[in-house]
Amino acid sequence: MTSQWDYFLKNLGQWQGSFTHLSPLGEIMKDVRSVLTLTEVDPRTVRLILQRFPDNQPPQELKLDFTSLNRSLLFCETGAFSQGGMQWSPFSNFGAEFSLIDNDRRLRLVQLYDSNGRLDQLTLIREKRADTNAQEKPPLTLDQLLGKWQGEATTIYASDWYCSAPFFTELIIEQTDSNQIFQQLTYGNGEQASTITSKAIIDGSRLLFNQNNPPRQVLLLPDGASSNCPLEIQSGQGFILELGWLMTPKKRQRLIRQYNSQGEWVSLTLVKEEKIL
């Protein structure tokens, strides 16, 4: 049986890219070139070396050795992963990191909240393996998302790392007028399927789901990326944090971290979907 550690090893190599710091509205604040190297030192040790090269500043370097995996970190069979807070609570900073992998490219996203529960900043990390010609995707547009997407998903539970059987997903996104979209999400197999509908206001590269509880936004970002998260986390309300990646015009993946109404991290879900209409 493949282990979390084996999934971790799918990320080995040298990854060249950049850390793009964004405002909560998706405005680019600064971009810092980076090189991240993951090396298997021995069968149970992986060494991480992260180098960042800020403009007009000395290079920064971080070194870490991994001999085990933290309970706040989960990997999927593709090598995708997410790590972050296991418990949200009022008056504390909170956040999560997501990573999706597509052959010789990786896309990572960090979503951070301040001590008032408000979305504070985002960091988009775009990387390619060294010595490859893997190309960055174009910036994501609403037109690319419109249509019907079908696929399957698997969920890993944070409490015991149990992985569910694959289940069906369908996402329909329609533009109903010049400044609004309708979205219908169906997930689950057979009689266990559930459907959720929602509407969003189009505000440039932002989709604002103001009718949701709590309200959330989807940001359309460079490299085919999307960030989906609440604008503000509120006590007593469950929520999700999500990274999406349009890998080809008709192939998309989403990585979803789910929290319950007590603010406890429940699960990580990887969705693989294809556009069929």
Automatic annotation (TrEMBL):
GO CC terms: plasma membrane
Residue ranges of domain DUF3598 in the record: 1-131
Organism (species): Gloeothece citriformis (strain PCC 7424)
Alphabetical list of Gene3D superfamilies matching this protein: 2.40.128.20
Biogenesis factor required for ATP synthase 1-like C-terminal domain residues: 136-276
BP GO annotations: division septum site selection
Protein name, per record: Uncharacterized protein
